[in-house]
Design a protein that fits this description.
Blueprint (H helix, E strand, L loop, with lengths): L18 H4 L8 H4 L12 H4 L4 H8 L5 E4 L6 H11 L3 E6 L5 H16 L4 E6 L6 H5 L2 H6 L3 E6 L3 H4 L2 H4 L3 E4 L5 H15 L5 H11 L3 H14 L7 H8 L11 H15 L3 H13 L4 H16 L5 H16 L3 H15 L5 H15 L15 H5 L39 H16 L2
Parallel strand pairs: 1-4, 1-5, 2-3, 3-4
Helix pairs in contact: 11-12, 11-13, 12-13, 13-14, 15-16, 15-17, 16-19, 17-18, 17-19, 18-19
């Protein structure tokens, strides 16, 4: 496997004969540094901006680069992408730390960039953690960006709308980078194994990917620690547990244990055993279960087991699903816990679930009864003459909006599918339903 590039040490052209000497591989460097790709073809992730025909990919291929901001969480490849952009557009690359530098350093770097421009060379200034610069420091870049002396690439984990001055934002295109997916991280870890001269099962690599939460650097660090702690060239579960300082709960997401755990969670919620529900939820979270799968199952529990006894249960479950999608891991896990508690302590009723089942059974087992004439719409004169809509009773013309009109087919009159319980809100619904049925059939 081709060695990856290490850190740049000051201004350097990627195309000078001695450039590769500066990038010599040092086995003492962290694995994440040694694994940095040297070409866009080796770069993993961010297909939404780097895939064939996507905007940033097209810019790089044309060599028509403008200043840009790379916004995304840690470990998704912002610094690496900036280097590859400079290489792909044949620009000199000057890394610049917003943590360690001020206006004096900015002016010195810009002087180098101006000299490069006079020599016909373009310069990419890469500013890591650009959100840490104050307004005056960010202002110092403006004249050089406006004149085209430099191509500014800023990297930030914070929303640039709040952390980067508007004048700079208007001159730079913002690209949002996404957390890497679990398969993408597993692929990266698999490629790193030969460099560490170790072996590891795909299950263990998958578990590292789960705990890294889309951060490739974090995943590399865990793998490197586990490799150092392993014997006989094979990474073990114990080595990863020692590296993570937590126990691994491995299980096949499509296998029996997956279904056993979700069944245990569902039945604990149905049984109103909040402590058991939290335990099984925690088991699934720690094992790396797909959070949206759990959220979908909680929505199902709210519908099937609580129903009209507490209609707000569905609202809580849907809100939890949105929170998981919005917050991700680990913050979204708190929403799953909150929803599990709410569903567990809520009054239970499967009456609405059973009501639909009964209606469905009726439809499947009996002929398709015609719609009563009084319920049919009559958009034409002929249809009115045929009796469509005749004897229709508009509910709002009656006291309490209750008419005596029959809405079921004649063969099913008097049939009752919904039988509410006396639990929670459904007790009040039962009273109201009894009054409605009595008045409609009196």
């Amino acid at each position: 496997m081709k060695p990856a590039a290490s850190e740049w040490r000051g201004p350097v052209s990627l195309f000078e004969p001695d450039a590769l000497a500066i990038l010599e591989i040092d086995a003492t460097r962290p694995l994440a540094e040694r694994m940095r790709p040297t070409s866009l073809g080796d770069y993993v992730g961010q297909e939404h901006i780097l895939g064939p025909g996507k905007p940033l990919r097209s810019q790089i291929e044309r060599g028509d680069l403008t200043s840009l901001i790379l916004w995304g969480p840690p470990g998704v490849g912002k610094t690496t992408l900036a280097r590859l952009i400079a290489r792909g557009t044949k620009c000199d690359f000057i890394p610049f730390s917003a943590v360690l530098s001020g206006i004096k350093e900015i002016k010195a770097v810009m002087a180098d960039a101006e000299r490069n421009k006079r020599l016909g060379r373009r310069t990419v200034i890469f500013v890591d953690e650009i959100h840490r610069f104050n307004k005056a420091q960010q202002d110092a870049f403006l004249p050089y960006v406006e004149k085209g002396d430099v191509i500014l690439i800023g990297a930030t984990t914070e929303n640039p709308s709040f952390e980067v001055i508007s004048a700079l934002l208007s001159r730079a295109k913002v690209y949002a980078l996404r957390p890497l997916t679990e398969p993408e991280i597993v692929g990266l870890l698999t490629r790193a194994l030969p460099m560490l001269r170790v072996q590891a099962s795909e299950d263990l690599l998958q578990q590292i990917a789960v705990y890294s939460s889309g951060d490739a650097r974090s995943a590399y660090n865990v793998l490197e620690l586990a490799a150092a702690a392993s014997k006989d060239g094979t990474i073990t579960t114990q080595a990863i547990e020692d590296s993570l300082q937590r126990k691994l709960l491995l299980y096949d997401k499509s296998g029996e244990e997956h279904f056993n755990l979700i069944s245990a969670l569902h039945k604990s919620v149905r049984s109103s055993d909040v402590d058991a529900a939290l335990y099984w939820l925690a088991r699934m979270l720690e094992a790396g279960e797909d959070r949206m799968y759990i959220a979908r199952r909680l929505v199902r529990m709210a519908i099937e087991d609580i129903g009209m006894a507490d209609p707000k249960a569905l609202e809580q479950a849907m809100a939890a699903m949105q929170a998981v999608h919005f917050l991700g891991i680990p913050d979204g896990d708190l929403a799953l816990g909150q929803a599990s508690i709410y569903l567990s302590v809520a009054p239970k009723s499967d009456a609405s679930y059973q009501a639909l089942n009964k209606a469905t059974d009726e439809v499947r087992s009996q002929p398709a009864h015609p719609v009563p004439m009084q319920l049919r719409n009559a958009p034409t004169k002929a249809m009115k003459e045929w009796g469509y809509g005749k004897e229709y009773q508009h509910a709002h013309k009656f006291s309490d909006a209750l008419s005596t009109m029959e809405c079921l087919p004649e063969a099913l009159r008097g049939k009752q599918f919904y039988e509410p319980t006396d639990r929670g809100l459904e007790a009040r619904i039962a009273e109201r339903l009894e009054e409605i049925r009595r008045r409609r059939h009196s």
